[in-house]
Amino acid sequence: MDKNFVIGLVLIMLMLIGYQILVPKPVEPTPVAEVKKTAPKAVSVASDSSSQSVDSAAIIPQKDLVIETRDARVVFTNKGGVMKEVMLKKYKTYDQKPLYLIAEGHNNFQIDLPTQTGDVRLTDQFFTTDAQDRTLAEKDSAVITYRTMLKNNQVVEQTYVVRGTGYLIDYGIKATGALPANKSLNFHWDNDLLQLENDMKKNREVVTVNYYTDELKSLPTSPTANEEEKTADPVKWFTIKHKYFLAGLIAEKHPFSNVVMRANVNPEDSVIVKNMNVFAAIPVAAVQKGEANFQYYLGPNEYHIVDKVKAENFDQNVYLGYAFLKPINKFFLVPLFNLIEGFVSNYGLLIILLVLFVKTLLTPLTYRSYISMAKMRILAPELEQIREQNKDDLAKQQQEQMKLYQQVGVSPLSGCVPVLATMPILFSLFFLFPNLIELRQQSFLWASDLSTYDSFFKLPFNVPFGIGNHISLFTILMTASSIGYAYYNNQNTPTQPGPVNMKALGYVMPLMFMFILNSFPAGLTFYYFVSNIVTIAQQLLIKRFVNEDKIKNILEENRKKNATGEKKQSKFQKYLEKSLQAAEEAKKKQAELEKKSKKK
């Protein structure tokens, strides 16, 4: 073998070995499914729902931004430049978990911006911001500006202002470049209302969407059916309303148009109360001019807080009853409740003090009512005699009774008027207590939460007519005290003639209310219970200072003066006299008609 040939062969072998050692093997491509699992979150700014490309090819990773305030923890995300989470620090759910009004996986914002080449879903875009995580002092504020660039160098900015205290977050959106003049930016808020209170059925009966045009309107509530409502009127603000909390958006200068609200409910769902959707349109011109400014309200539906929000009638989110009852709650009961709250931290004692204050204020009416009942007790023997003498003639009975009232100067209605005057306060409380967030999770005696029913005894089955699967002890005590008061009242009130037995009705009504109020807040039934006890005590106290013999002498003097014409007639006595005269004339005409018919 040639020497050169051997040397060449050895060199070739060495080259092949060196190549294998020194040159790395090519990397095999990773399967697509594996890339999805391992690749870090990074997307091109170019991605959007309408496949509209952008000029920038920068890759932006998804990143959250956390702002902590005294009252809330707000998490923003650069995907869409929207809020991802809002947690209220001062409140917990019924089972003592963190309370979220916006929760990841249960909330979705969708913002579609019209452009010259088609709509861009901004909430699918990835934004940039210079803002950093911050914990704000009470007087501090943070400005978060999210920017993204669209096609043709159009820039969209979303700006938020978060303050160190309170539940308002300023929001503005602005876009540069040419946009279609006659179109609107479409805003869609999809929010799952998580269960924050213990009674799922009651929650589904009260959650809704409130919206304000020139008056407050609400999406119909139903615990089992889906609801939808549209309005062509400009909407100044709307709120997604839990039982005690609000998540809403307020328009500062340009109201929302073409607003659509939907409530979807799945009665079998044990986590989500309802799914709420609000669709609204915002003028593009406002977006271009930088005038599309709004405020989010994400906080408690507490009257003295929402009353300070600078939006027209925003306080109406707290329902204070019918129009004629609202002033009583707004200008009397709510301020009184908040005044006592400043001195008393135990809400059971606060309710007792509220009862005592109201009852003391109404003492003159209670006194007049008792005096009227005393007069009727004195006249009871004479009234019974009239009934016995005219058993078969009800009209004659009534005429004789009216004549007796006229003679002694007594109005049978004078006892009813003071009682009726107190009714508006009782009805006002009926609407106020279920909407008082101040009672939420406040315990008293065996009730762990005065804002809901006290489940003293659980039933293994559901009872219809409002009872449910529990027995409320405060409701039982309220019913027992109402029956006790009816019994006491019946002993001091003569039987009134008429088709309805009012004494029996006094026992029936408390039993009816027991069914109605069994699932109402324990604070309300406790108030009614204490009110009944105080009323009985009040009447027993008044009885000690009322001399019925003196009242009897006054009635006899009135009888003598009216007989001689010395006493000037009251308006009621004049009315009775006219009524008696009219009754006598009617009786005479009836007698004449009967005589004529007999002659024929």
TrEMBL record:
CDD domains linked to this entry: 5TM_YidC_Alb3, EcYidC-like_peri
Stored InterPro entries: Membr_insert_YidC (IPR019998), Membr_insert_YidC_N (IPR028053), YidC/ALB3/OXA1/COX18 (IPR001708), YidC/Oxa/ALB_C (IPR028055), YidC_ALB_C (IPR047196), YidC_periplasmic_sf (IPR038221)
Domain Membrane insertase YidC/Oxa/ALB C-terminal: from-to ranges: 347-544
Recorded GO MF terms: membrane insertase activity
Native species: Dyadobacter sp. 676
Gene Ontology cellular component list: plasma membrane
Entry's localization field: Cell inner membrane; Cell membrane
The protein's role, per its UniProt record: Required for the insertion and/or proper folding and/or complex formation of integral membrane proteins into the membrane. Involved in integration of membrane proteins that insert both dependently and independently of the Sec translocase complex, as well as at least some lipoproteins. Aids folding of multispanning membrane proteins.
KW Membrane (keyword) present: yes
Chain ranges of the Membrane insertase YidC N-terminal domain: 66-331
UniProt record, GO biological process: protein insertion into membrane; protein transport
Membrane topology: Multi-pass membrane protein
Quaternary structure and interacting proteins, as annotated: Interacts with the Sec translocase complex via SecD. Specifically interacts with transmembrane segments of nascent integral membrane proteins during membrane integration.
Pfam families for this protein: 60KD_IMP, YidC_periplas
Entries under Gene3D superfamilies matching the protein: 2.70.98.90
Gene: yidC
Residue stretches spanning the membrane: 5-22, 347-367, 410-433, 467-488, 500-520
Keyword Membrane: yes
Name of the protein in question: Membrane protein insertase YidC
Domain of life: Bacteria
Record's keyword terms, sorted: Cell membrane, Chaperone, Membrane, Protein transport, Transmembrane, Transmembrane helix, Transport
Family of this protein: Belongs to the OXA1/ALB3/YidC family. Type 1 subfamily.
